[in-house]
Amino acid sequence: MAKAHTKGVRKKIDRPPPRVFLGVGALFLGLNHLSVALGFGLHAEALMAGCWLVLVGGWVALAGRSFDAVWAWADPSGRRTIGLILFTLGAAFGAAEGVARIAYGQRLLN
């Protein structure tokens, strides 16, 4: 146990690059919008990938210390890491479903 009045040590985590994630996510969302605008229909894969990349990139950019804490918690265990990835994919699926319904008036999965 840590003694009273001692400082803790924060583990340095290699974060994903938020600008790259946000840029590639915006590219995927833009490609999906272009596909809908040109009449090719909704591309669920591009919408899901874009939402996941924007979600993770935004999390790292806006709350990097919380990302470090959650990743440090999940890192030692493979199950936790898979669970964290599935949790973020679930959140991205919800965001993609919301975008599909609100912006395009369609459902993500028919």
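(the above was protein one; protein two follows)
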Amino acid sequence: MIEMAGKASSNVRTPHASQENPMEIRVHRGEGKLQHVIEIGPHTVLTDAPRMYGGEETGPEPHDLLAAALGACTALTVTMYARRKGMDLKDIHVRLEHGQQDDAYVLKRHIHYVGNLSAEEQDRLTEIANKCPVHKTLSGPIQIITDTE
């Protein structure tokens, strides 16, 4: 379960973070044994670990949030494209399976389009899904830079 709560924030959010204008996300300890609070601009999301690892399952675990980001980005990107092109996309259902397989972490995305769409339109929407910003980020080079304060 993801808890979303509107919170006042002085952070101004831009559509896309960039090197000149990076998106800041803050994470701090929550109320549970392992629960943490994620603050993303005016939004709050809880994350936790499964009970088998000492958590209380009060929120999704981090890998679930990663997969959810891909699913949400896919749905939003495809919906915006279909609207802009006047396609009869009534809804999009995105389901993800994810986990470690051998030496790779695998995200398997299943997309179901709802609406009166030709095979060509569905193929084009799938091409667009593969170009959503999170898909591109996860498929490209990623650098994680860690410093201590």
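Reviewer note on protein two: The longest strand covers residues 89-101.
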